[in-house]
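Input chain follows. Return structure tokens only.
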Amino acid sequence: MGKMTVYHGSYTAVKKPEILKGRNTKDFGPGFYCTVIREQFWSLPVLNIPPIRSTSAPRQLWPVWNTYQARR
């Protein structure tokens, strides 16, 4: 059985995906969503987060690109 590369973009590193965990409140239900399209994987934006208090500076949340080898 061959392997293929799949990609998952997130704002946290996911070393060992747990496919059965998830929340029913997400757009597509529980699951761990990946793509085989490298360009889609790289398109995750940097998020600009507004300040928590009026005295704090805005923050940026940088994406993490996770790559996995999956059985076909």
